[in-house]
Design goal:
The strands form three sheets. Strands 3-4-5-8-9-10-11-12 form an eight-stranded parallel barrel, surrounded by five helices. A two-stranded antiparallel sheet has the order 1-2. The chain has a two-stranded parallel ribbon with strand order 6-7. It has a single domain, classed as Alpha-Beta Barrel (TIM Barrel), CATH 3.20.20. It has 335 residues and is an alpha/beta fold. Helices cover 33% and strands 16% of the residues.
């Protein structure tokens, strides 16, 4: 049997295979952040297509924390009904359901609302962020906690904190964007404080599966590198899984995004950490995914654009690897 289609248990959660639909912004909500019919069709199709775990797109903890005004929201109890129905849609078709909790910080495109750890602008496409006060920090942390509690009420199997791609938690972590001189900046330990405090508060009430997405490299000499995250995760013992991506803190960099270009980061972290890790980034073929797992470079394979192009990517992968999997009746003849 291939590893790709073998089950795995993460903090008591059993996944039927190692295929994860990576969280991707699809920009199909309204300007209030509500779930739409498109979300049910889009995510439901990937569940029918035999993906093991589906993680919803970056879902914002506040109106001003959205990347765009078409992002899903989880800042209001009114969002709960739609999120619960969407979660149920995914689970009734055999996949586990996850949600990525996020705040865009200085990368928000909502006019005149951007905040960040420091008032460092991204580029001329964005407005300058307001530097967060200690009161702002406490408020945003409260918003993360309230949003996680809503995600639990909605029934999600996995909650992922978005600490990657240049968004707010990543902004606190990186010396490129965090120029603070107080307890939330000026050293690696202080830059990690914002994240660590959120994690500690989550674990006061949540014992379920907690993922974190990171950018293992800022791709700049003065930025974060994978070695910094090895050190960080040796100080953090309250997450179950590290979803390893890269980049985003500096826009406009020319990154050679070849097939599997981020896999070396997951390989390095897996070698040094005791918790499982995921690989993502142009993993388009079943044999490519299987090789990553066989070579012990990751525990889960996060598939993004390939699953956007083909909701039945997992079924095709099983066919390519000559795996017999439990298919819906409608597909048993087709594959």
């Amino acid at each position: 049997m291939s590893i790709l289609f073998s089950p795995i248990i993460i903090n008591k959660l059993a996944l039927k295979n190692r295929i994860v639909m990576a969280p991707m912004c699809i920009l199909m909500s309204d300007n209030q952040g509500f779930v739409k019919e498109f979300h049910h069709i889009h995510y439901g199709a990937r569940a029918i297509g035999q993906v093991g775990l589906i993680i919803l797109e970056a879902t914002s903890i506040s109106p001003e924390g959205r990347i765009t005004d078409a992002d899903l929201g989880i800042w209001n109890d009114l969002h709960l009904e739609g999120l619960k129905e969407l979660c149920d849609t995914i689970k009734k078709h055999g996949a586990k359901a996850g949600i990525q909790i996020a705040h865009a910080g200085r990368k928000s495109r909502i006019p005149n609302t951007a905040i960040s750890c420091s008032n460092v602008v991204v580029d001329d496409r964005y407005s300058a962020p307001r530097e967060m006060t200690l009161k702002d920090i406490a408020t945003v942390q409260d918003q993360f906690i309230s949003s996680v509690k809503r995600a639990i009420k909605a029934g999600f199997d996995v909650i992922e904190l978005h600490a990657a791609h240049g968004y707010l938690i990543n902004q606190f972590l990186s010396p490129i964007t965090n120029h603070r001189k107080d307890d939330y900046g000026n050293s690696p330990e202080n830059r990690a404080r914002f994240l660590k405090e959120i994690l500690a508060r989550i674990r006061e009430f949540y014992t379920g599966v907690l993922f974190i997405r990171i950018s293992a490299s800022d791709y700049k000499k003065e930025g974060l590198k994978v070695a910094d995250y090895i050190k960080l995760f040796k100080e953090i013992d309250n997450v179950d899984f590290v979803d390893v991506s890269s980049g985003g803190i500096v826009d406009g960099l020319e990154i050679k995004a070849k097939a599997g270009y981020q896999v070396p980061f997951s390989k390095t972290l897996k070698k040094h950490l005791t918790i499982p890790v995921g690989a993502v980034g142009k993993i388009n073929k079943a044999k490519q995914a299987e090789n990553i797992l066989q070579q012990n470079k990751a525990d889960l394979i996060f598939v993004g654009r390939a699953l956007n192009r083909n909701p039945n990517w997992a079924i095709q992968a099983a066919y390519d690897l000559k795996e017999e999997i439990d298919l819906p009746k409608a597909y048993k003849v087709s594959f």
